[in-house]
Write a structure and sequence with these properties.
heterodimer; A: about 600 residues; Rossmann fold; six-stranded parallel sheet; about 35% helix; about 15% strand; globular; disordered N terminus; B: about 190 residues; alpha+beta; Alpha-Beta Plaits; five-stranded antiparallel sheet; about 40% strand; elongated; disordered C terminus; binds thiamine diphosphate
Chain lengths: ~600, ~190
């Protein structure tokens, strides 16, 4: 694979001292040269009429820019997301006009909600056909507007490099996000003098707000006087590469530390101050004690409603400090007392400098007490079940035991919540999951993208029997590229998460959630991918071992309990402090059931 | 409490920007009651004036979401007390009702309106004022018959002693004009 810095060709083109004339190239070739100038070495995509000139140009650069052909455009955008989230670089995908572009939309929306830097390039019909309902003409600019950080239509070859330069700058700076460039076919075909100038600044865009000195002082002062501080950290730490800065901050202030789902792996799970995951299916202690802390310190997270539950009962007693790079997040959901705007990589150390070294043993002990309750009522049963059937949690535990450093990519549903609850992480960027949108079908293509970005890491996808069927065609990419991605299908023969809600909140009326599944092993066989199926606990560890040690791709299907539920749960509409610890109390806010 | 608010949004001149701006309002469930777009005192930068009814909290959140748009430089919002507003109304009436009756003339005079254009068939009358005033003129003219009537919607200017200086809100002016590129070269950026 090419290294990201292999941009020599376009850079020499760019060098004003090179006394050559600017090369005359087609718009399509300028797209490729621009991508190379941005350090791109891999793109995910699918060809079609309006993007054909670009694919044609790509063929001449195969040795520098690898194209990974997916089996559906949704796969391309999820793969680009997985690539971006595993590497921290911008993910790039290509699609044709109309249908190709609309097939990208789900993934673009997913990337928008999860702040993933993507550049999506779509072909468009000839400029003179725009607005005529031409074959495969769809106004993708309009469709993508609400789910892109920025988008642009390019109708002339000469405009391509500047549009791409701007797109990369916007996608990766500030709070990252997906951008879309729609390029008409004539712009790809026509010739232009190629000259690339990376973009570093725009008149209308301040990616990183300047921190306010006073806010830094106020934040430090509040943290210093806090008796029961609680830190909530999110993906902002990972996006800002501020894991070390956070660690220094956290250890100085001594507060308990809780993660949002997208913040997972920013801090090693075994850190003594780590108290678990927030949210609807998060851990009992951090959710409950959110309503007991005196200072709530939110770092690079956005108070999503899955974290806060009912805002009317959320941390009303606490002073709130919010560190974020995006001013529009401040006071959006939760009123804050101190807003520390800026890049956490800079604001955290600036606050840490002013902090007294503190420890809060009694306050931390309270988390441990509540954790012991969760351990007794839920975790022990999840991890050490007395049932005949395997359950999801013990599969995750088994994986942790055999490899405590894999990069886990999940799909959406019960298995996702279980994976996030039980997976252990020792390095950052070890969990990729669809948080804000919750897109089933994300896992397989995102795992593919993650493996292309990080061939050095063991990439393991955890997926449900429902979700895997949404993008199962991407097994073709594993086959074609001999990509050693491991996929664990946790097969409960149900759309488990929806079934759980039906059980708890819809009188056990299981409308359209029971699945008639295909033989997954035969499907894997069809793609020439090694596979195995386990149904008994006695064979689980061996099967996981076989999967992890196999040099190629592997699909492991694990038959799990059909009608298990994920607990604890915060009933929709309830307060964070009212977590239900078991079936008997689900649906009420009373959680004093013993078993 | 729901009140009338006027947003003043400065943006670059980019295709689709109006869609992006209006999408922020529609996502918040707000109907745009009046909209006007013009070039601002900075050539190349556009000023969108948008009037909606909402509560202060929603107004604040919408302004944050507007500023989040890459091509938007700044989004201010004002309560009606903080702005001066005016709107333009045009009325088309048959010229024969002007010629045959003095009533129409009297109405125009009484309302401080003026004749903008006249030919043998029709006359166009112009009225600048508040909504209630242009409505009153319409009601009176209806007695002689109005063929067509159009109102611009209010345009507004703030009562604050501010200029349209956007310098502070534009990073190009704010930061010094050079910055480090990834490969360590110093790059000139144009402003
Ligand atoms: C594309 C999409 N459609 C529908 C849903 C709603 N949904 C959320 S979880 C879920 C069930 C997932 O079932 P499965 O993949 O078998 O995983 P499990 O919950 O059983 O672990 C569904 C249908 C979704 N999140 N995404």
């Amino acid at each position: 694979m090419k290294s990201a810095s292999n941009t020599s060709d376009p850079m020499t083109i760019n060098n004003p001292l090179a006394d050559q004339e600017l090369p005359n190239v087609s718009g399509a070739e300028s797209i490729i040269l621009s991508l190379l100038a941005e350090g791109v070495s891999q793109v995910f995509g699918y060809p079609g009429g309006a993007i054909m000139p670009t694919y044609d140009a790509l063929m001449d650069y195969e040795d520098q820019l690898e194209h990974i052909m997916v089996r559906h455009e949704q796969g391309a955008v999820h793969a680009a997301q997985g690539y971006a989230r595993a590497s921290g670089k911008v993910g790039v995908c290509l699609a044709t006009s109309g249908l190709g572009a609309t097939n990208l939309i789900t993934g673009i929306a997913d990337a928008y909600l999860d702040s993933t830097p993507l550049v999506c390039i779509t072909g468009q019909v000839f400029a003179q056909l725009l607005g005529t309902d031409a074959f495969q003409e769809i106004d993708i600019l309009d469709i993508s507007t609400p789910v892109t950080k920025w988008n642009i239509k390019v109708t002339q070859a000469s405009e391509i490099p500047a549009a791409i330069a701007k797109a990369f700058y916007i996608a990766k700076s500030g709070r990252p996000g997906p951008v879309l460039i729609d390029i008409t076919k004539n712009a790809q075909i026509d010739c232009m003098a190629f000259d690339y100038h990376p973009c570093y600044q725009l008149n209308s865009y301040q990616p990183t707000p300047q921190p306010d000195e006073l806010a830094l002082v106020q934040a430090a002062r509040l943290i210093n006087v806090a008796k029961k501080p609680l830190v909530l950290f999110g993906q902002g730490l990972i996006l800002g590469a501020a894991e070390q800065e956070f660690l220094a901050f956290a250890e100085r202030c001594g507060a308990p530390l809780a993660a949002t789902i997208l913040g997972l792996s920013a801090l090693p799970t075994n850190h003594p101050q780590y108290v678990g995951m927030l949210g609807m299916h998060g851990n009992y202690a951090p959710n409950t004690l959110t309503n007991e802390c005196d200072v709530l310190i939110a770092v690079g997270m956005r108070f999503d409603d899955r974290v806060t539950s009912n805002l009317d009962f959320y941390a009303k007693q606490a002073k709130v400090i919010h560190f974020d790079i995006d001013p529009s997040e401040i006071n959006k959901n939760v009123a804050v007392d101190v807003a520390v705007l800026g890049d956490v990589k800079h604001t955290l150390p600036a606050v840490t400098k002013q902090l007294d070294a503190n420890k809060h043993p009694q306050w931390l002990a309270k988390f441990h007490q509540l954790h012991a309750i969760e351990q007794h009522k839920i975790i022990a049963k999840d991890l050490e079940p007395k049932t005949d059937t395997i359950n999801m949690a013990e599969v995750i535990k088994c994986l942790n035991q055999q490899d405590d450093n894999c990069l886990i990519v999940t799909d959406v549903g019960q298995h996702q919540m279980v994976a996030c609850r039980y997976a252990k992480f020792s390095q950052s960027r070890s969990l990729i999951t669809s948080g804000g949108l919750g897109t089933m079908g994300f896992c397989l293509p995102a795992a593919i993208g993650a493996k292309f970005a990080r061939p050095d890491r063991q990439v393991v996808g955890i997926v449900g029997d429902g979700g895997v069927q949404m993008t199962i065609q991407e097994l073709g990419v594993l086959m074609q590229h001999q990509l050693p991605v491991k996929i664990i299908i946790l097969n409960n023969q149900f759309l488990g998460m929806v079934r759980q809600w039906q059980e708890l909140y819809f009188d056990k009326r299981y409308a359209s959630t029971e699945l008639s599944n295909p033989n997954f092993g035969l499907i894997a066989d069809g793609y020439g991918i090694n596979n195995a199926k386990v149904s008994s606990r006695a064979h689980l560890a061996d099967a996981v071992h076989t999967m992890l040690s196999h040099p190629g791709a592997f699909v492991l299907e694990v038959m799990v309990a059909q009608q298990d539920n994920v607990f604890p749960i915060i009933t929709p509409g309830a307060s964070v402090a009212d977590m239900c610890l078991g079936t008997n109390t689900a649906g009420t806010s009373d959680d004093n059931s013993e078993d | 409490m729901t009140k009338n608010y006027t947003f003043t949004i400065y943006s670059n001149d980019q295709t689709g920007i109006l869609n992006r701006i209006s999408a922020v309002f529609s996502r918040a469930g707000l109907n745009i009651e009046a909209l006007s777009v013009c070039e601002s005192t900075h050539s190349g930068l556009f000023r969108h004036n948008v009037q909606v009814s909402c509560d202060a909290q929603t107004g604040f959140r919408v302004s944050q979401q507007l500023e989040r748009q890459i091509e938007v430089i700044k989004a201010d919002f004002y309560h009606q007390d903080e702005i001066i507003q005016q709107e333009l109304a045009l009325y088309k009436i048959a010229s024969k009702s002007m010629l045959e009756q003095t009533l129409a003339e009297q109405i125009i005079h009484r309302h401080h309106a003026r004749v903008l254009s006249m030919n043998s068939e029709f006359t166009v009358i112009e009225k600048i004022g508040k909504r209630a005033e242009s409505q009153a003129l319409f009601d009176d003219l209806s007695t002689v018959g109005v063929l067509e009537f159009v109102r611009s919607g209010p345009v507004s200017i703030s009562k604050l002693m501010t200029t349209e200086s956007l310098q502070e809100d534009m990073p190009v002016f704010k930061q010094h004009a050079t910055c480090e590129s990834e490969n360590g070269q110093t790059v000139e950026t144009s402003s």
